[in-house]
Specification:
Number of helices of chain B: 12
Order of helices and strands of chain B: HHHHHEEEHHEEEEHHHHH
Radius of gyration of chain A: 31 Å
Distance between the termini of chain A: 58 Å
Structural class of chain B: mainly alpha
Structural class of chain A: mainly alpha
Shape of chain B: globular
Number of strands of chain B: 7
Largest sheet of chain B: 3 strands, antiparallel
Distance between the termini of chain B: 44 Å
Oligomer: heterodimer
Strand order of the largest sheet of chain A: 1-2
Number of strands of chain A: 2
Largest interface: A-B, 55 and 54 residues
Number of helices of chain A: 19
């Protein structure tokens, strides 16, 4: 055979050609740019447009940051330094950061208290967010609300302690009665808690305080047991947004679960109560609910009682967010295959057991991303309280700071500061939610 | 063989109200109903006592009283002598105007950003991610105030458009002679309708219906007979020709009123106030970021196999988009899109922060403060938004059912 070849083919290569590097236009950065940036006339135009937008953003923002002014007392001094070179006047944040974060009436000697509460918040939510942390940390999560209340509002520590005591007694009562039925356990727990609060009421009366501390205001244990009280109306700044956000989200989760279960229920009266509540709340803007908190809700409390505006706002925002959370959880419940319900039934579990052991763990897992979205949205919506003249971060900027003679006209720096604060928190939460989503996804397959 | 007998019928005992599943639900519902009645009667009782103590009563008579305040944007004629009722209607119309326009522009922003975020172009997709993340994670109220501040501070004051006394040219002139961006708002030309002006508009609306008819005809032709009917040019013709004909036949009943610089202020034209512009733009660009995410999710939800299969059938890329991808993607996109529209409508109540006179500004703002009728005003306000939301939701349910995948 090789002979015939020898006659027909002049040359046969016996060795392989060594691989050549790809042409310059088909490799590395050039290839990437050709594929991703300049793959056609339209794409090229878009790339150039994009580059131009980025260029103008940088040109616009760079001198603003590079020439920024720190350490002056008012806007006129600031203008003298910048001399119209477009520098930012970040001195306003240096001067007023306490007001921006804590409001203008929170006593400055007590700033460490909300700060501690803020730091501890991370410890408290960590075991909820990251399931591989030791479960014992959940005990601190349980303690945290009472601790945070005492830190931020101050007063005698016995108030949060008795409140916590009621919950603890209620928990043990529930454990004791649970074997009868869930409903009996629940009612027993509520009764036990109320009884505890009623019995320990004397502890928090002013008279007791006199016994505990005497007339000496600098008693030995004073710092540990008693912190100067700060009234609710003195809360402000970003702290107020954080308080409203965390309190309302954590309260609305259990309420939302109850509403979602109620809406799925087969009992028509309970179902319709939940449906009407959810649809009503979801149909109206939050501002109208805040108007209710501001001017209407007081009419529905018993005469002669005064309820803090902040508490009224918390009530309304909690109602608002629980309706949204309920819809998210209903989505989770609906997404569960029917087989799960039927399997629970065939095991002989009753409704409470099936819900607690089979349905809810799965439904909650499915609805975590949605709930986080609701939480982020709610946290952003807490800025709306500035409309009913509460001094949250937005209210502080619009009111006391921009209308002061020192800083009237420093819009950009202040709004950029506010936007940055919200961005950090909201972006952080949504990144967490995406991480969790990815993690749960791999868990399923 | 034994005969199966019915199990002995248990006679009703009182303990079955708690222990038997079939009766227990009645117990729970009775308790719930009772609790509801108790709560409502306590609240009602408190309300009655508080109202009596304040010497008030629940009455909507105030709606007939003269309002006594001005509204700076009036879609229907209104003056301060008109009633609170009319002021509320003006406010409600303003809400609907800004919500409708913001829905349109937010959809445009959202679709563009959502599609571009999926683009192969690295810079563009990153820019769009930046846009989406920045706008989604900062409260709309902050955006609204920032945009309001920008429009009020960056655009030129009206004074710069004035003719100087020495006869020299003014500092600024109208863009193309028809528009002006000032710190008091944007001035644009206004349409003025003559005697038969409405007929022209009706003709135009009818042409739009005609275009839909044409599309449907072309579609049926394609599906039933396999013939393609050209759509684009005939549609344009249907859209333009009858309206233009009508316009000239009726003797040009629709005119344009251009804004002109008077001695102190603009005369003629239509003034879009700063508050309106800021609210419109803020709502559009904020909600646009959310819509972009919905659009992206909708497109990503269609598996690649669909477009490959369509290509294998020999469809061109435009047809693939129109006949295969979009109908399926829209099924995913539309429900969240509608709820974004509802969000826009609800968020438009933020108007009160920049002084745009929507329903929250008139009924929930000035009327409430002037008359002190807090409960009545807030209730009416909620009722308006509730009616609007529920109507849209009901329509959406009808739509959802009509496009639902028909499975076995």
């Amino acid at each position: 055979m090789s002979d015939t070849h020898a006659q027909t083919v002049a040359f046969v290569r016996h060795t392989e050609i060594p691989p050549a590097p790809p042409p310059a236009g088909q490799a590395g950065a050039v290839k990437w740019m050709r594929e991703n940036l300049f793959s056609g006339p339209f794409n090229t135009v878009m790339t150039l447009l994009g580059v131009y937008i980025i260029y103008s953003l940088i040109v616009g923002i760079f001198p603003w940051i590079a020439n920024s002014v720190w350490g002056v007392d008012n806007i006129r001094a600031c203008r003298e330094v910048t001399q119209g070179n477009g520098g930012a006047c970040f001195a306003v944040i240096e001067q007023r950061w306490q007001q921006l974060l804590f409001g203008f009436e929170y006593p400055s000697t007590e700033y460490w208290r909300p700060t501690t509460a803020f730091v501890l918040l991370f410890v408290a939510v960590a075991p909820v967010l990251f399931l591989n942390l030791p479960r014992a940390l959940l005990i601190f999560t349980g303690i945290y609300p009472f601790l945070a209340y005492w830190l931020i509002w101050g007063g005698i520590i016995l108030i949060p302690i008795t409140a916590a005591l009621g919950f603890i007694v209620g928990y043990f009562a529930f454990k004791r009665l649970e074997h009868n039925s869930f409903a009996i356990g629940l009612f027993g727990a509520v009764a036990a808690a109320v009884l505890t609060w009623w019995l320990t009421d004397f502890l928090i009366q002013p008279a007791t305080r006199g016994v505990l501390f005497g007339t000496d205001p600098d008693g030995m244990l004073r710092g540990l047991l008693y912190q100067p009280e700060v009234a609710s109306r003195n809360m402000g700044g970003f702290m107020l947004n954080m308080i409203l956000g965390t309190v309302c989200v954590s309260l609305s989760l259990p309420i939302g679960i109850a509403l979602a279960l109620g809406r799925q229920s087969h009992m028509p009266i309970i179902k319709w109560i939940c449906v009407i509540f959810i649809e009503f709340i979801r149909g109206v803007p939050l501002i109208t609910l805040l108007f209710v908190a501001n001017v209407v809700l007081a009419y529905f409390f018993p005469p002669e009682t005064t309820i803090d505006l902040i508490l009224r706002v918390i009530i309304m925002i909690t109602m608002f967010s629980s309706a949204y959370i309920a819809e998210v959880i209903r989505g989770g419940l609906a997404a569960l295959p029917r087989g799960q319900y039927e399997a629970a039934d065939s095991l002989g579990l009753d409704y409470a057991q099936a819900t607690r052991l089979i349905i809810m763990p799965q439904a909650l897992k499915i609805s975590i991303p949605g709930s986080v979205n609701v939480a982020v949205g709610l946290f952003k919506d807490t800025t709306l309280v500035s409309v009913i003249s509460m001094f949250d971060l937005v209210g502080m900027i619009r009111g006391p700071i921009l209308s002061s003679t020192d800083w009237a006209g420093v819009y950009w720096e202040l709004w950029a500061f506010a936007a940055a604060l919200f961005f950090v928190v909201c972006y952080g939460i949504s990144q967490y939610s995406q991480w969790l989503e990815r993690k749960l996804q791999t868990g399923h397959r | 063989m034994t005969i199966a007998t019915d199990p002995p019928k248990a006679s009703f005992r009182l303990s079955m109200l708690i222990n038997a599943t079939r009766y227990r639900s009645y117990t729970f519902q009775a308790i719930a109903l009772l609790a509801l009645i108790v709560v409502f009667s306590i609240l009602g009782n408190n309300l009655a006592q508080n109202l009596a103590a304040a010497g008030l009563n629940i009455s909507y008579e105030f709606l007939g009283d003269p309002a006594g305040y001005d509204i700076n944007q009036q879609p229907i004629p209104y003056n301060s002598q008109d009633t609170h009722m009319r002021a509320s209607v003006v406010g409600a119309l303003n809400t609907l105007i800004v919500a409708f326009l913001a829905c349109l522009t937010a959809t445009v922003f959202g679709v563009i950003a959502g599609v571009l975020r999926l683009s192969n172009n690295w810079i563009i997709s990153k820019l769009m991610s930046l846009y989406v993340e920045i706008f989604r994670n900062i409260p709309v109220l902050i955006w609204l105030i920032i945009i309001f501040t920008v429009t009020a501070n960056v655009f030129a004051p009206i004074a710069e458009f004035r003719l100087p006394r020495d006869g020299s040219d003014p500092e600024r002139t109208l863009i193309f002679g028809v528009m002006a961006f000032t710190n008091q708002g944007v001035f644009i030309p206004k349409l003025v309708f003559g005697d038969n002006g409405a007929l022209v508009i009706y003709t135009f609306l009818a042409s739009i219906l005609g275009v839909f008819g044409l599309r449907r005809y072309a579609r049926n032709k394609l599906f039933n007979e396999g013939k393609t009917v050209p759509v684009l040019l005939p549609a344009l013709a249907i859209l333009i020709v009858p309206t233009v004909l009508m316009y000239f036949v009726l003797g040009r009943p629709v005119g344009v009123d251009l804004p002109e610089m008077g001695r102190f202020r603009f005369e003629g034209g239509l003034q879009l106030r700063t508050s309106f512009i800021a609210l419109w733009f803020a709502l559009s660009i904020y909600t646009g970021a959310f819509i972009a995410e919905n659009v992206r999710a909708g497109i990503l939800a269609i598996s690649k196999g669909q477009s490959e299969a369509a290509a294998a059938l020999g469809l061109r890329s435009g047809r693939i988009m129109n006949l295969v991808i979009l109908p399926q993607a829209l099924r995913v996109i539309i429900p969240p899109l509608i709820s974004q529209y509802l969000n826009i409508t609800k968020n438009s109540s933020l108007a009160i922060a920049v002084g745009y006179m929507d329903l929250t500004g008139t009924l929930g703002g000035i009327t409430l403060n002037q008359t002190g009728r807090a409960i009545e005003s807030v209730l009416l306000l909620m009722l308006f938004y509730l009616t609007f939301s529920l109507t849209i939701s009901a329509l959406m349910n009808v739509y959802n059912n009509s496009i639902k995948l028909k499975e076995r």
